[in-house]
Every structure is written in C-alpha cells, then in structure tokens.
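COURSE: Structural Biology Practicum
ASSIGNMENT: Worksheet 4, Part C
STUDENT ID: 0417
INSTRUCTIONS: Below are two proteins. For each, the amino acid sequence is given first, followed by its structure token string. Answer the questions at the end about the second protein only.

PROTEIN I
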Amino acid sequence: MNVKYLESFLEVAKDLNMTTAAQRLYISQQTLSFQIQRLELYYGVKLFERQPKLQLTYAGKQLVEGAGVIIKENESLINSFSDISSKHSGLLRIGIPAYRAAECFPMVLPDFHKRWPNISLELVEESSEEMLQMLCDGALDLLIGTPSRSEVSGLKDRIDFTLLLEEKSYIICSDILLEHYFGKDTPRIKEQAACGTDLHEFSQVPFILHKPPMRLRRVADECFHNAGFKPNVYIESSNTELMISLYPCHLGAFFCRKSRLPSLMKTLSGCNAFPIKNDSTLLQTPICLMRRKNGKPPGHVNDFMILMKTAWKHLADFPVSPVSGAE
C-alpha cells in the first residue's frame, strides 16, 4: 500500500472536495480518484459516499483517525534510516517564524545539505501556541521559539528545551521621528536610551504595534503598563515586514527582537535601536530549540541541532553599533 495514497485521502477528508484536494496535491482529479479507489480496494471498504454529496463513511472516519499515525510511523522509519546511510531520503519538519529562519538558515543549511543531501525540510509557520502543540503531537520534529515560563514548566517532562539565546527586545525609530518629538533634546534622549529605556520618555511618540495576542505585543503592553502610560498607537499589524517598510515614512516607532537587527541594520540607514528595560533591568526573552523527549535523535536531526546552536551563538554576538543604541 502506497503511503502517498493515505496522504491524498486525508487531503480529500479535510473539506470533502475532490477538486480542491487535487489542486493542493498538484495532481489531476482523475489521479486522485484512482488513488482513493486503490485505498478502498486495499482495505476492502468504501471510504466515501459520493451521493448526494461527498461524505465520509464510517470506515472513512476510522481511517482518518488511523492514517495520521501510519504516516508518522512511516516518516519516523524513513528518518531512522538516515543513521544507517546519508543516502536515504527523509523529512525534517521544523516550526520556526519566517524572520528567524531568514536570519539563521543561511548559516545552517549549506553545511546541513552537504552532510545530508537527501533530507528535505518542511517549514511550518503558525502561532507559537499552535506550533508547540504540533510538536507535542508529533507533527513537528523541532521547534525554534519563545516558550513562556508556564509552558516550560508544564511540558518539561515531554519536551527538551535547549536555550539558544536570551534575546533582548528593542524599540526602533528614526532620527527624523526623534527630532520631530524631542527637538534639541534628541541627542540627550539618544544617549540616555542607548543603555536601555523603560519607554517613559517615549510616551508622546506614536507607535506601530503588533496585533494582540502576538507575544511581542504582550511584551510591549507590559512595558507600557509599567511605564505608566497608554501608547499613541498609529497602526497595528501582525506583519513586522510592514512595520519595517513604513520606517522611512517616520510615522512611528516599533518593537523588534535582537535576532532581526543584522538584517535591519543593513536595510534601514540611520536606524536607532534602543534596548528596552522593564522594572529597571534589560528585557530579555529566552529563545529555545525544542524537541520531544522520544529517545536519541536521528543523525540528521542531531546535526541540524548542532548547526543551529552555532548559528545562534553568532547571532548572540552580533554588535549593535554605538550610534544605534549600544548595549
């Protein structure tokens, strides 16, 4: 029995539409129908009722529950072969925000591909909470993210948390924006904020903020609360790239993590990056490499983890220029 047929079956079962399932799978509807028929022949049951509209039979519903397990076990078996020979193909499923991947993957993937040329990568970009649940369910092999203290405490028996970086958060703003609101005081504000700001002095500056409940928005809201003011919010967005694109318009300051700074400094000229304080200490968020506690990792997974740790050490050492708010 071809496991690919099970994957096709699950695609159809998602929305019970052969046409859209075939489009997602990049195959013809005729090919998809053939695969479903082969599954029905293999199991000796009818999986779908086709009239008056497509719906799962009782057997089909049972297969939905079991197919995912079969596919995961097959992937695990294929990946385990990588310990025997790097010539075997496999799949490494990684949960990571796109901007983090953009910063660290150029330092990781060339070496990883040389060692494991037949291992494919599947990247997942969902919310932090969704990806952590996927890791627990076995739908991800690795996750790079910022777990909360409660998540670390509650999942420590199931998940290995490897600290990659205690990441600082920064407020990003232009000289033009600062001069508009602080005038002649701008040099003093910049010098004062270079070692860290609790945002109190920025109470009149407009902000471009992430939408709640994004984690960086939670961080921002806590900082505003502790600083004792309600921010002047010009716009909210779930897309940091939009915030970066608006920087030359000088419409507001925005928050970002330190791992974004290498690319940010290249893109934005004259960019001020001031580290944020919370309760008089620099605000830091742990970035972790997470993996389920399910025995020794396959060779390709272990190598990927080692390369990731090296890359993040490089990112941790990235200097913030004195003009742009040195640490």
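PROTEIN II
(use this one for the questions)
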Amino acid sequence: MPRTFLLSLTVCTGLVSCQRTPAPPPPTAEVTTVPTHSHVFSAEITAADVAELLKSFTSKVSEDSAPNSNGEEKTINYLRDQMLRIGLQPGNGDSWFQTVPMIETITDPTSTPALHTADQSHPLTFGRDILLGTRTAQPTVKLHNSELVFVGYGVDAPEQQWNDYANQNWKGKTVVILINTPNFHNGNAKLASAKRMTYYGYWTYKFEEAARKGAAAALIVHDNMATTYHWDALQKYWSGPRYDLPNADDSESRLQVQGWISQQTAHQLFANAGLDLNKAYRDASKHGFKPISLKANWSVDLKSTITQKTSHNVIGVLPGSQQADEAVIYTTHWDHLDTQTDNISNNHTMIAGNAIGVTGILEIADAFTHQRPRPERSVVFLATAFKASDMPGSKYYVQHPSFPLDKIAGVINLDTMSVTNRTRDLTVIGFGSSQLEDILKPVAALQGRTLHGETSTQNDTYFRSDHINFAKAGVPALYIHRGESLRNNSTVTGGNNTNQNVAQQRYQPNNIDNQATWTLDGTVDDLQALYEVGRALTISGQWPNWHEGQPFKATRDRMMATKPTLMSNTAEQ
C-alpha cells in the first residue's frame, strides 16, 4: 500500500502542504535509453518501489566497481538512466558525470625507516613496528634526521582554548601524536563529553593539522582502546592501495610522510628519551601541555608505486522553482569493492554497502519530482566515487561543487541505510552536531520515533563517510542509521552491524519479493524522514548551522555572515 506523506507542519509552519502529481517529462540533454520496469513506480516512497530498485541494481551491477572497471561503467550508467527515468536533469553542466582524477599510492614495504638516538640507530620493520604512506604523489620521498617531537594529542581547537602545538616552528620536524582526545584517557570534559570520538580525535585530523602547522611528517601512536581497531587492521589498510586527489585538485596542506607506530615502538622511543609513555598520556591530557623533544631523529627512504586513475561522481539535479541558485544535497556512494566468490555474501555486502543508499536517493528524488508545489530551492542527488577508500569522490566535489558551498543549505547522507522492520527510534550518527537535527526531530516524532546518538560513541563512523568532506568545508550534514528498538519490543539484531546469518537468509536478490524474510517498512520510514527534512529545507529559506562548540561552526559562520539562520522557530518546536 502506498504510504501517505507526512505533513511536516511542525517544520514548515504556515507553508502550504505538498501534493504529489505526475512527474514532468524527462530532460533531453545527454539522452540515453530510459530503463524499463515491469513494476509501476508509485508517486510515493514505498516498500515495493525500494524492493524493485534493489532487485534491478543488484542484478545489473553484481561485480567489483573499482575505478576504471567494467563494474564502474555499469553502475554509473545505471544511475544516469534511473535519474533520467525519474525526471532529473544532468547536474554537472550538460553531463550526468563529474570526472574525478585520482592518485593511487601503494607503499613499498621494503622501505627501511630508522630511529637515531645519540649513540645508536634502531631500524624499524614496516608492518610490525611502523606503517607509512605519502600523499605527495612522488615515487620516492626522503627524510633525513628529522627531529621527533611529542605534541600530545596534536589538537588545535581555538573554540576550546586548546593548542598542543604552542605556536612553535615545525618546519622539517616529525610530530609524534596520541590518537583520540584528552578526554578519552582522563574523562576531561574540556574537549568533549565522556569518551565520544570527535573530529579532533580522528586520525585524518591529526595528519591534516600537522601539515597545516608545517611539519614534515607525523606518526600516530596506535592504541587499541582509543581507536577500537587492532594493529593488524591498520596493517591491512595501510599495506594496500590508497587513493587521493592530485595536489592541484586539493587545497589541503600535505605532509611528506605520515603513518603509525606500534605501542611497543612508542614505549621504546619514549624510554630512550628518559620518558614514560603512560605518564605522557596523563600529562598530555592536561590543559597547558607543551610539546616535548624525544631526543631522537629518524630517517626514511620511502618508496611507493604511483598510478594516475580516474573515476566518476554521478550528479542529477531538480532545479528550484524560485531560489534555483540555492541547493539541498542528498548524497550516497555508488562504489562496491568486494569480490567474494560467495554470491550470498557478496550480495549482502553490496546491499549493506551501497545498494540501499543508491536506492534511497533514487526514491527520494522520485518523491521530489512529483512534489507540488515544486521545491523552491534546487535539490542535488550526488552519488560519489570511491567512498570505500579515502573518499576522493566527495572530496573532489567539495573542491569543485556544482553549487557554491555558501549556497548549500545542508547535506543529507544516505550511507549505511538498513533493511529493517519499523522502529521506535532513529540513530543520528554524530548526534548533537547541527541544527539539521532540529528539523529531523519533529519529523521523527510524527512517525512515533525518538532520536538518539550511536550506541558506541567511541566508533569513528561519523568521520568515515562522504558527508565529512562537506562538514570540514563548513556545510552542515545529517547522517542517520536505523533505530535499535523494534516496534514489536525486540532489539535489532547485531547492533550497528547486520547479522551475517540473517544476511544469508535475506540479502539475495531472489528473496527480495519474499516478505517472510525481507522487510522494508523501517527502511521506508527512514527514507520518508530524510525526504521530509530536505523538503523543509527547500521551501523554508532556512540556513542551518552547526551547534556551538562544533569544530566546523567557525567556517559556516564566515560563509553565512550575510544570511539569517532562520532556525529559532524550528528549534523551539
């Protein structure tokens, strides 16, 4: 049965309700064959529509979709054709595609770094003692006798009066950094509450901040508890190919060398300097910490295999009826990098990894094309390349956006959507970050749902999805996951991860029509909620911001200096 659209009057007070009418004819630019379906799509977001799109996607795109692969071509063409069927227009000028240049870097594990103290040299074994990489796109990078300096947690947070770098000159030096933030080890509320992973605690921030300070290299001390992953997981990640934008397409500063050292290596490094690593954790957690020389240098002749590649973002747009130069963005990633020989496992991973997100933005796009009155702001539907490896697709879009960043009201991310029954709640990843949650809250309430943060606040999930590149540029982003409390009073199996046994029963394309093992009611609720949030943004003239204390707020404040936030009424309801 088609689901009745929620009337978000608590969000769009005083605005006329939106009615659904037949979609306009498809555009003629870059015409392709419109896909045919025996299924008749509804004007509303329905479980039947979602199931049909999941079936068509998983049956037509059932292979690795790495850059330049046959799988990529099938995937992006599928998205283009579906966007054309829905009635969107090409979102990158006259093209549906945005070419993303990439640099693939594979570190040579035979590279031989060494520590130098006053009287001896200590070779380090790649993989066991140290993991290294470079973002320079150079096949050889050499560091010679770079001084090692301990900078605590490597945090510079002006809004929280915390600066571990103490305004020193870091040119040519290598900074040694603890992972996570001071609050993790001592409960310090100065930087964050409890043990929640924050932007300042995430490893990519550590490297980015060190580069901004002018350091030559940065080494993070691994910590199982503070990262929630073991050394062998890091070893696997850093031993494979890494993907980045060419320097010319990325405004970020870059280190010559970056990497991790093991706990054992760190203990020895500190001991050689007459220091105790455990005490260093405690000292670095105190306000007013100052950098400490480790009385050692290090050298490395880092070899890498560098390959230039390209991939593609897929962009569709529904132009706004009034403020067409302003936009709301829905995003997901289209890539799927698993090549399992077990078709059941592969289909499960594909659906959990990208098919639900792809299906979600298509269903929401279809809802917008039928909406009357039409959205006043433009709505962009962005399927990014290669989220699975360092997110170069979204990073490139942010550097080369189809709408200026100060014209984007907000970003809604559909990564890790779930196949689930209806729930009484809704998980917001990064809960408490932005005013977009103030719009979502009454929408969820109309569904009989409450909002809460992720179950494990130590996880770094918020920083591993495409919206984070928009956030770093100042644009507020909303990222949800399914609820945990089912309406039948049971708990969703597997917490934040789909149970593999259930997956083997459910996630085969042939089983999608079997309602005994496949349920999409909760998925429809999630998509409906995200549609309503975007709809409110397209017709309300609101410019949401980050909440106070968030590291991205200062950037948003600068870009919004001449615009009203118009969020006070929403926040009060």
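ANSWER KEY EXCERPT:
Q1: The domain at 104-306 is CATH 3.50.30.30 (Glucose Oxidase; domain 1).
Q2: Residues 1-31, 338-350, 494-511, 568-573 have pLDDT under 50 and may be disordered.
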